[in-house]
Amino acid sequence: MSITFKKKVSSTATTRLPSGTRLNSNGTLLLTSTGISSLDTFIGEGLPIGSLTVIYEDKYSNMSDSILRCYLSEGIYNTHDLCVAALRTDPTENLPTKEEYTPTDDSPSDKMKIAWRYENLSAINSSTTTNIHYDLQTTKSIPNGLVEQIKIHKLTWNEYKQSQPAISYRNYLLKSLQQLLTTNYSSQHADKRILRIAIQSLSLSLFDDDDDLHHADELFSFLYHLRILLRTSLATCVITLNEKSKLFETVADIVFECKLSNTIHSDYVGFCQLIKLPKLNTVQPFIPDTWDIGIKLIKHRKNIIFEKYSIPPDLSEDASRDEKNKNFSCSSSSKLDF
């Protein structure tokens, strides 16, 4: 006899949720979308409010920037305030617009005889369950009416040099984010507005204190203190990093890496390697069906989707290619079909 416990969520609770958020299937986490629905399915239905996400950049592609732009556009369409820290071009310029497309069924008509297990893949493999996407090559701009409803805070390098150049860039970011989160986006604040923080291309070279600390230690300290601030606020943060380190992965809630595909004539422009998934408010964290994810650009390279490109082997004892060979034995009564 097994006893299971499930948290009962009130049906009226969803009416009090902030705009652009929802509860997960267990009712224990408040989630918001990354802007890419196919990516949400691999990380546990979306980004938990109060979480820190780290994306390792690929220097040969701009896939991490595309994810960051979709993340910011999703915030504008859901009336979430934005906070952007960038050293290169402003990520808020020429953001992709939300558009609709008609899902197509590209599945083969014939029954698979060799890769038969791929027939039972879930719908997220093709990512055609939704008809909403963000056009990465759009020539349109987001309506001004939507932009005027939110606040956009920018922490650029020029503003840092002009404000308080005596302190380090790490302390400048932490001080600015702490003032912003504790003042306007605290979880105890009466106005339940969500803040989306995007930090583009954070590098070790930006942490140039005069003390004897190693730059990696300073960056770890920055991520650690930032996560503490996020835990008590109605905000999410996505950071793209130039350097990889196991140390950074210990303080982040979600970590994945985007790599450019070097396979000739491949259907995928890149691959996504999941490194860490959130383990918040649960004793049994979300585990995807596979950790091997391919990245595609469809509809004339406008829409980015994430899908399975391999499935784990079936190691069960009753695994077989078809039903007629399922009861195969070496007895004399068995008919061998070659």
UniProtKB/TrEMBL annotation:
It is found in: Cytoplasm; Nucleus. The keyword NADP does not apply. Keywords: Cytoplasm, Nucleus, tRNA processing. Residues 316-338 are annotated as: Disordered. Pfam families: PAXNEB. One of its GO terms (cellular component) is transcription elongation factor complex. Residues 329-338 have a biased composition (Low complexity). GO terms for biological process: tRNA wobble uridine modification. Pathway: tRNA modification; 5-methoxycarbonylmethyl-2-thiouridine-tRNA biosynthesis. The keyword Nucleus applies. Belongs to the ELP4 family. This is Elongator complex protein 4. It comes from Rotaria magnacalcarata.
